[in-house]
């Protein structure tokens, strides 16, 4: 009986032994990855280092999107997930505009807990780029203007976040730059840099945090390329454009508009170009404190900068062209869209005058511009085609940033 019992026990152990299935071939996994949506791809790569290594290969990226570098934007349905929304009553959340419910006006909130601080903390978005979000964390009860604040970089795709080391003490604004690949990604899994940029009327001062080093570099002072009456030369939050290792932003003195370019690919360099007379006429010639609705964008993915102006019942653009070391702006504007095209999307209203149209943000990977109106909500403008591809209603008075789900943000 003892032998029989032992036999039964041994049989049960053999039955309980699980056979580990053989892993799928890498080629098959990559083929599955090419056919899946960005959120699912992000989750796959977050769990598999080998897959992540293949995804960070630029050749995989171009094959999956079916694009050649610099040719066109990625389709909004591929990468533009929604917008990061900040309410001044402490709520900071991500609205997912890609769900079926969102198409009918419902709000789908994603990864809200990632952006929430402690009970006495307020999380303020500074930038969203390449799937990463830059946030300032302050205590509104004890906050002093100019005091040091905590700066954090988050990935809503993976739920990872990294608080930066205590940074520069000089006043200024933070700029987020995101790199390709997984090397040097630190705690969020993707390489990035954060610039602290401050200024006087005669010089720009910058200091850079690198995820590869995990520390801030030395402070650099760069003289202004010309004398200006601008109160500040530094880029304002949400009012600048990043192309590779270059940051572009608008500066206006008493009579003219300029575009500044800060290139940090090597030794930091600051250059500027003056916008043409036709641009100033479209803006109504800047006077006093009046600010036209102006936005920087690119003509194609990581391509030449363009400046958009919303005025006179239309949205117009001017494009930067480069010849050797010389950059200049086109003299004649290109009309992207007339307000009438937007008004035709508004159903059931006899008086469909849009009123003031604001240029809120530009999604750098998909080429979508968010337009807002005081009466009829928001519109998505596909900059490359000139078509309005989406219209929806939301509460105005919110601070928003585009959130593009880049499957390399791991």
From TrEMBL:
Domain DUF7595 residue range list: 123-391
InterPro entries cross-referenced by the UniProt entry: DUF7595 (IPR056016), F-box-like_dom_sf (IPR036047)
Pfam families according to UniProt: DUF7595 (PF24523)
Domain of life, per lineage: Eukaryota
Disordered: annotated segments: 1-22
Name recorded for this polypeptide: DUF7595 domain-containing protein
Organism of this sequence: Urochloa decumbens
Taxonomic placement: Eukaryota, Viridiplantae, Streptophyta, Embryophyta, Tracheophyta
